[in-house]
Structures are given as structure tokens and as C-alpha cells.
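Quick log. Single chain, no ligands specified.
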Amino acid sequence: KHRDLVRLVADQFSEFDFRSPYVRDSYSSDWRSRCAVWGSYTRANPVFTEQHTRWYGTGTKQPPADLIITPVVALFWYLGDGNLGKQDGCSDRVNFSTHCFGASGIEVIRTALQAAGFARTAVYSDGGHPRLYLKHDSKDWINFIGLCPVACMSYKWSLLGSEAKFRHAGQKGASYACLD
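-> predicted structure:
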């Protein structure tokens, strides 16, 4: 991950004594080239242990049935597993990588999204991997999660096909400023 994104996560969880971001040498996913990998850590903490048990208690990743999607949860989920994609070749939509969840896990997420005001969702298969997407105007999602908090992730706020132009939700053609 990018250093600024790791710093954002560490700052968000500062009460849990996250350590300063560090970099280590690693290999790319295809093992062909070396790359830098940013990370952070905290000492063992009962809160994180409890959350790990809630999400991985069965041995596989499964969202807890009482999942609540707040703007902060949504922002960090989108930073990690979301993107804007084309819908019907002309407009943008919000997509999420949900391939690690089974059908029941995706239903938990859909229910949580509905409670957050995003009732219209759909799932499609991307090479056999389920991906969840919102059938809402992407501006509604951007208004829910807010401005891009780190410049390294600003591409997730841009429309595909635009040459580094970012749109502020609701203002066609305006610059979309990221907070640094």
C-alpha cells in the first residue's frame, strides 16, 4: 500500500498505538520484480482480536450479521476494495471486490448497505468472482464517504476515461480536491 494510505489508517486507529508506517522490500504479485511495501502494526489488542474472531470465526472471511456501514466504514472499504467503473458504456458506478465472500456474506453486506441508504445493489460475475455494485448514482456514494483523504487514492474519485480530471460530486466539470 501507499505510505500516505498506511498513515491514514494508523491515524484513524491511533488510540490503539499504531506504529509509524514502515517500508520493506518485497516482490510483485507475479514474483517477477521487487517492490516496496508499506505497512504499520500495533501490539496485540483485545478489540482487534474480537473483530478478527467476528470476521474469521468460521475459518473463512464472513461479515458479521450485525454489520453497520457508517461513512467511515464505507470510506475505508472503498479505499481498499472499491472503484468506479463504467455502466452501460456511458456512466459510472461504484463496484466492490467481494470475491472472498460467499452468497450469505454478500447478502449481509447488501442488507447493511440498504440500512445505510443504498438499497439498490446487484452482483455480477467477473471471471467467476462475485462483485457487488451499487445501482445508485455514484455521486450519492461520494457524498456519503466524503472527499478523498489521501492524494495517492484520488483515482478512485475520478471518472474512467477522464485525463486526471476529478469531479466534485454535484458539480460537473469542477476539480475534485483531495485532502493532504
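Residues 160-180 have pLDDT under 50 and may be disordered.
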